[in-house]
Amino acid sequence: MGFGTLFIGYFLLLNIVKPAASDVIAGLVILLALERLSQVNRKFKLSRIFAALFSAVGLVRFVMFFGGMLIPSLGAAESMTSPYFGAARFLLLCPLTVLILLGIEEVAREVELEKVPTRAKFLAFFGIAVRLLYALCSLPVALPALLYFSAFLLEFIYVITLLFLIWNCYYMICMPGEENGKRKKPSRFAFVNAYREREEQKEREMQEYRLAELKRKQAKRKGKKKKK
Questions:
Q1: How many Å apart are CA 86 and CA 15, to the nearest integer?
Q2: What's the helix, strand, coil split of the chain in %, to 5?
Q3: Cα–Cα dist 5/38, whole Å
Q4: 178: which residues sit within 8 A by CB, 6+ positions away?
Q5: The pTM is what?
Q6: Burial class of 23 by CB neighbour count within 10 A (0 to 12, 13 to 18, 19+)
Q7: 28-72 pLDDT, tens per residue?
Q8: More confident residue, 177 or 74
Q9: In contact, 139 and 120? CB cutoff 8 Å
Q10: So what's the pLDDT on residue 33?
């Protein structure tokens, strides 16, 4: 459905030390994921705008970062603008992540996943504080060293927490069979294979039920809109 691709995109955001080298790739992967998820609800659809802007900023930083290794003047310009690009990075990540998390909250409620909606909503608003703090610390202003360290640590923990949430969605909301990729190697014991088959069948039935419920609720909402 797109959560697996979204997981990869957010995993690339863990490069906090030299984001100029990987942000454009992360942004494009996230954008690809959101293209797939845009059919689920409006929040995922709107988040594509910020993913595209994030990718564009990442591309400029990528060119300046690697181009600066060959052209000294470009390298000097990259060093001067790096703090402002860093602040822009987090100011774009803020609405992007909030919309994605609110989209996750909505779809998780529709398929009746326990705890996921509450976690997603909490992380959405907690992330605003983390990203604004890091944007401030990215600017060339004198701040206490403890504040810089706190921003770095909070951002790292925040992205890790997001990855766990997205992985949970990937496992619980993806298309039947999508979470496995390749089937496990058959065991030489018949009872082990029989057990795996039963578990896989249960998982497929649960995934199909959740997807059917999601489609039913979406169709119901569209029907109400048409009546209005």
A1: 13
A2: 80, 0, 20
A3: 13
A4: 1, 4
A5: 0.74
A6: buried
A7: 999 999 998 888 788 999 999 999 999 999 999 898 888 888 888
A8: 74
A9: no
A10: 92
